[in-house]
Amino acid sequence: GQQVMQIPQYQHVQEGEDFTTYCNSSTTLSNIQWYKQRPGGHPVFLIQLVKSGEVKKQKRLTFQFGEAKKNSSLHITATQTTDVGTYFCAGLGNAGNNRKLIWGLGTSLGVNP
Amino acid sequence: SQTIHQWPATLVQPVGSPLSLECTVEGTSNPNLYWYRQAAGRGLQLLFYSVGIGQISSEVPQNLSASRPQDRQFILSSKKLLLSDSGFYLCAWSVPGPYNQPQHFGDGTRLSIL
Predict the structure, then answer these.
(1) Rounded to an integer, what distance in angstroms lies between the CA atom of residue A86 and that of residue B42?
(2) Domain segments of chain A: what residues?
């Protein structure tokens, strides 16, 4: 079946360093969504990418969707302690009528002040 | 604006006891509704989703069931809880239509089985 892999599983950075998490799908995706879950909280929607090669920015966060629509990345510039949490990607497959989001297992980000 | 309410926030239940978790959405009509389970430090596992009243799709065979008695009410139930049912249960909604709309989550229920 369709799978979405996320790497790395964990990363700790020093405050001010950059951070990137990658999302790779075994099949072409219709779109990809990114969510952030703070420790003890619930996932919160960040952004959705739809077009091949699309790049979107939210302040220090840059989201990219690959040309083949099989991979995506989230890059955080100059991390802050408020960036701590788990970042999930979730992709919508192309196949069949039963189209549901396929979730990655997330990348947990720790930021040392 | 739309809001989603989920309760209780935490629950401790003995093995073999029944379960009922409730989720309600306000400010939207005919939403898609979802139940997820998240084990500690892990990803989200979709348990059930619903596109309308009485329409439930099950993703994972288990001793849990879901019902949607009203348009904006989604209930997760079990007749007999197992130890493996422990976890963080999240309800979510999205606007009706294709399954490519952002999902909005409730605060979740932390369920511990003793």
Answers:
(1) 10
(2) 4-112
CATH fold group of domain A4-112: Immunoglobulin-like (2.60.40)
Name the residue facing B43 among A30, A42, A106 (closest C-beta): A106
> Cβ–Cβ contacts within 10 Å for residue A91, how many?
30
Query: What was the pLDDT predicted at B22?
Result: 96
Tell me the residue type at A97.
N
What does the pLDDT look like over B66-79, one tens digit per residue? Answer: 999 999 999 999 99
Question: Which of A57-61, A82-86, A97-101, B107-111 is the least confident region?
Answer: A97-101
Position A42: which residue type? H
Beta-carbon pairs below 8 A across chains A and B: 43
Residues in chain B with CB shorter than 8 Å from the CB of A88 are: 43-44
Average pLDDT, chain A: 93
Is the Cβ pair A30, B100 closer than 8 Å? yes
Per-position DSSP letters for B34-63, written without gaps between them: EEEEE-TT--EEEEEEEEETTEEEE-S-SS
CATH number of B3-113: 2.60.40.10
Asked if the C-beta of B47 comes within 8 angstroms of chain A's C-beta atoms, the answer is no
